[in-house]
Design a protein that fits this description.
The structure is a homotetramer of 134-residue chains. Chain A is 26% helix and 40% strand. With 134 residues, the first copy, chain A, is α+β, with helices and mostly antiparallel strands.
């Protein structure tokens, strides 16, 4: 898996139960996907192709609570790539440990930016994100 | 399913692709769960029992994009209740239609607020949320 | 002032100090502005004029903490309208009381959607939002 | 001023007008304050003193829009410290330039964590954050 940066848990990430709120983890995971898109595809290339990145399913496990001051590491790999859709596997770990705070399978498509319909994933994109296949 | 209110999509819910951002849907769905907890269990009752509500898995489908001005309706029902965990099914629909914008299965436990460990769901809680079984 | 709806404080609005987080109040206040824009100007009218609503300054007082379960009411009025900028005064009150949780002066302009430059506020817009002058 | 890290603008920071949303800047600025609290005071020291950090006023100027891919640098300095309150000045700049995207004066107090009332800022705290006086 690719390491996509880290996040220090702050007071504004926390909810009433003193742990990082569920929705925030999705922002942390989106951050990781942007890192990967930037590095392996490029937003400009997507704009040139007239496509946008659309998440169609997220299946996320919340395994351990994270608290203020915890340093979280973001990991991401590609598990599957088909004709029109693909799947990232993402982990959020406590820095410097094997402890997984949350993990998710994220299924996505590339959609035509005008019609919003999923398009066939072309060979160039397949080759580019194929580099992070796990 | 129980109708848990509605949300008008605003400019700050939108992301770069002009649609409601993935993480926001989780806030909308959490809003629905709070409505249900308030009405069927009560935060005070949970505090008296020394338990907190902990989501352990969310499996969410993003079916249609939602845009500024769309009015979204929140629906929730209980699909399963076991010894220590239970599952809500939640839908976000375009108001006044059958169109599902997003739906999710949300698996949760009640945890001891001190140890953080999942506890057996007691009969009172089972009876209370059993009312919204679908 | 115009009443622009209400918000029930939920667990995900809360931060480490058990109160609504500073940034959230800005979302609550933006919600109130969208209500006013919808009702008194209309996003379509703005799109037809090729203008967008741009906030240039917010001066916000956090007067009382708000906690889970509090019901907040959103109020908004126009205090000043000039050639190119105008000022809303916004209050968030505890429902059914005169208690102000937060208040703000919000200075805004209308900008050309292509150049991003502030444009002269035209007579139609002045007349429309002039209705909520306080 | 102290440099408190940087943030790359992502798709989920953006709102309907394709720019970073107003409320997000407050999260970015809160991030900078946590960096400073961590480094110059310490959350543990505050907990030992039984105090919490409470913002009472933010006066923020939105000077330039920021867009996806922009790298923002966070800066913070102390401008004033009195008996019970103090003021940070914060800037968000486009990385590697003098361009200020947003700046704010943030007035804060330390409150007793039980009563919520502002307490006298003690000499130790004054000395510690006095180091970043500008």
């Amino acid at each position: 898996m690719i390491r996509c940066g880290e996040i220090i848990v702050r007071g504004f990430h926390i909810d009433i139960f003193s742990h990082v709120n569920n929705a925030r983890y999705l922002e942390f995971m989106e951050e990781a996907r942007w890192v990967v898109i930037d590095k392996y595809i490029g937003l400009k290339r997507m704009q040139a192709k007239g496509i946008i990145f659309v998440v169609v399913n997220i299946n996320i496990n919340y395994r351990r609570p994270a608290s203020v001051g915890d340093i979280l590491e973001l990991y991401l790999g590609l598990t599957k790539i088909g004709g029109k859709s693909a799947v990232f596997y993402q982990e959020i770990r406590l820095k410097g440990t094997e402890t997984v705070v949350a993990d998710a399978h994220v299924t996505f498509v590339f959609a035509d930016k005008n019609t919003g319909k999923a398009v066939k994933i072309d060979d160039e994109i397949k080759r580019l994100i194929g580099k992070i296949k796990i």
